[in-house]
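Work through this protein:
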Amino acid sequence: MSTRLAPTISRDTEFYWNGLREHKLLIQRCSGCGKLRHPPRPMCPQCRSLSWEAIESSGEGTVYSYVMPHQPRFPFFDYPYIVVLVELSEGVRVLSNLRDIDPDDVTVGMPVEVFYETFEGASGDLVLHQFRPKGLQ
């Protein structure tokens, strides 16, 4: 288990981090217009409603974009590592890491699925979503 920087958790994002601890990838759905949104925020950018509910994502999606950072090197990452923008099947995009694949084999549009990993955080254990090519277990 490697150490990671702890996220800043607010009233608006607490549901999201609690969901990850339960191995659920939660996204917001506006109660006013039904639009899905991520990252979490208090107001719907579409209709400006403050009412929303959390729905569980299937955790399946495709690689929308990716990058492999090289500098600065952080001690809590194994290099090379892949930062990926995943377009979930629900239509919203999430930023994460892509694991269990050679960096040369990553392609835009490839199907991926979520899994959860526990890291040591500054304030205890931290559960984060990670992605891997679909079909790996």
User: Anything to note?
Assistant: The chain has two domains: 8-56, 58-137.
